[in-house]
Design brief:
The chain is mainly alpha-helical and 525 residues long. It has 22 helices and no strands. 45% of the residues are buried.
């Protein structure tokens, strides 16, 4: 396993290093001074930071009361289902969510129809900064809840009981009990959300509304796909990479010792608040969050069914696009699993004997997330165009990029299960002399199988919703459902887009469930 992990680590470093080296090589041919002094670059930087800052602030401001309500109401019926709903945006393709948001908040959406029914002549503009922030909050509010909820669950029950016995008023409880916890958890949650928004691509591309509302990811895409100016695109990608690394460095400084996302503690929590007012407020927060997350999904399903019935669909083209989506996503998912699993297993084995090696393996598994998808994709686009042409280049490029970008997420899912299994079985396996393939078949695989199934399913779902790879490498012969949906949204063919969005949503759901059950076995069902 050590040899396999070293090989995978070298492969990841070489893959990322080659992409970055190609970017530096190409950027040398650009007008560096002119671009750095340009108004365009300043506008891209300002919009990137502005939309990320607003999205983070709103997601956190809404996530705190919703997470607090989840912690306080630990026994209400449907809590587990509602928590599962908070995970829905994680596997929902970005463009499907964009369609649902347009269907609810667009000029002809549900909200505009309700306002017109009330006599209010309103035509909401979903495109531009407002639409980008709204879509980011849709994705990141559930993430904020999942990251902040363990903070309240880390507060001992005895603390709440003592506060109740002392008759501590609400402001004092918040100042002395909850505020210290939030000072540890909020910076980490905010940093994670900010980084995701800085690197946003599909949402900004679909809802940005023009060159004045572009992040670095979108600017790189436009430079390579619309202008085909590789030096300029490479320089923009390096500027975006520099911003990403600067934000990552600041985020690392904000990280304290709180363990994010450690799970949900069971019922029995006692809160010293009045049941009448407290439960009503909590219920309103939970209901509002559920409607905000569920409404675009319901709109996608209902409009999609109507689109399937009413629209004149090119079923052979849709079937071909669905087949291409699966043919690109499934190999990328399992390739990411093959790369991530040896790293995580070697990290767990080295944690006790060589913590430094374990730390380096963890850093290497997270390297792709530190480099933006567009920078990696552009680097490999420039490399592959030197050695292979046409459809093979497109297929290889899409699978390669989706594989690299899925590795950090697959490793994050596998790591807790691998560490628990190693802690439980390592000494016994050493004592009995069980090692190698025999240990994997008899000990590790049955324990890790559910986590492996979940990791592979998530990687496949992410690849099915990818727009970066297919946008960079795709051509007329390689059009998956995501690219088809983007073209329909851009041409305002909303009935066709509704049907495509529903088919993509169903494909993601069926693929996720199928891979998780087939790979994960009965324990994952």
């Amino acid at each position: 396993m050590r040899i396999a992990s070293l090989f995978v680590a070298a492969l990841l470093i070489a893959g990322i290093g080659a992409a970055l080296l190609m970017l530096f090589t190409q950027a040398g041919g650009a007008d560096i001074a002119g671009l750095l002094r340009s108004v365009y670059l300043r506008r891209v930087l300002e919009f990137t930071l502005l939309q990320a800052g607003l999205s983070t602030a709103i997601s956190i401001a809404l996530g705190v009361p919703v997470a607090r309500a989840f912690a306080a109401e630990s026994t209400f019926p449907g809590r587990r289902l509602l928590l599962g709903l908070m995970s829905l945006p994680i596997v929902l393709p970005s463009l499907v969510a964009v369609f649902g948001i347009v269907a609810i908040y667009g000029q002809n959406g549900v909200l505009a129809s309700l306002l017109r029914g009330l006599g209010v002549a309103a035509r909401p503009d979903i495109y531009g900064l407002g639409g980008v922030v709204l879509a980011h909050v849709f994705f990141n509010l559930p993430l904020a809840v999942r990251l902040l909820l363990p903070g309240w669950q880390s507060i001992p029950l005895e603390t709440w009981r003592l506060a109740a016995q002392l008759g501590m008023p609400g402001w004092a409880r918040f100042r002395l009990i909850e505020a210290p916890m939030l000072r540890r958890y909020l910076p980490q949650a905010a940093a994670a959300i900010f980084l995701l928004c800085v690197g946003s691509f599909a949402i900004v591309l679909a809802l940005g509304g023009g060159p004045g509302a572009a992040t670095f990811e979108v600017a790189v895409f436009e430079a390579i796909r619309f202008e085909f100016d590789p030096p300029r695109a490479a320089l923009l990608a390096l500027c975006g990479l520099a911003l990403n690394l600067a934000c990552l460095t600041l985020a690392q400084q904000a990280v304290g010792e709180a363990a994010l996302g450690t799970g949900w503690r069971g019922g029995g929590q006692v809160w010293p608040v009045g049941w009448s007012r407290g439960r009503l407020q909590n219920g309103l927060f939970l209901l509002t969050a559920a409607l905000f997350v569920l409404a675009p999904v319901v709109a996608t399903v209902t409009d999609g069914i109507a689109g399937l019935i009413q629209a004149r669909l090119n079923w052979p083209a849709l079937a071909r696009a669905a087949g291409i989506s699966l043919a690109l996503a499934v190999p990328a998912a399992f390739a990411a699993l093959v790369l991530a699993l040896p790293l995580v297993l070697a990290e767990a084995a080295a944690r006790a004997r060589n913590p430094r090696r374990a730390g380096w393996l963890r850093v290497i598994s997270a390297l792709p997330i530190a480099v933006s998808p567009m920078a990696l994709g552009l680097g490999w686009f420039l490399i592959l165009r030197l050695v292979v042409e046409g459809l093979p280049r497109a297929i290889l490029g899409v699978i390669l990029l989706n594989t690299l970008m899925a590795v950090p997420f697959v490793a994050a899912i596998l790591r807790p299960a691998v560490e628990r299994a190693h802690h439980r079985h390592e000494r016994l396996c050493r004592a009995l002399g069980i090692a190698g393939w025999r240990r994997w078949r008899l000990i590790d695989w049955p324990v890790l199988r559910p986590g492996i199934g979940m990791a592979a399913a998530l990687a496949a779902a992410m690849a099915l919703g990818d727009l970066v790879g297919i946008g960079l490498f795709g051509d007329a012969r390689l059009r998956n459902l995501t690219l088809l949906l983007y073209d329909q949204l851009g041409a305002y063919r909303m009935e066709g887009a509704a049907a495509t969005a529903l088919l993509l949503l169903l494909l993601v759901f069926v693929t996720y469930q199928g891979i998780e059950r087939m790979v994960g076995g009965r324990a994952a069902a």
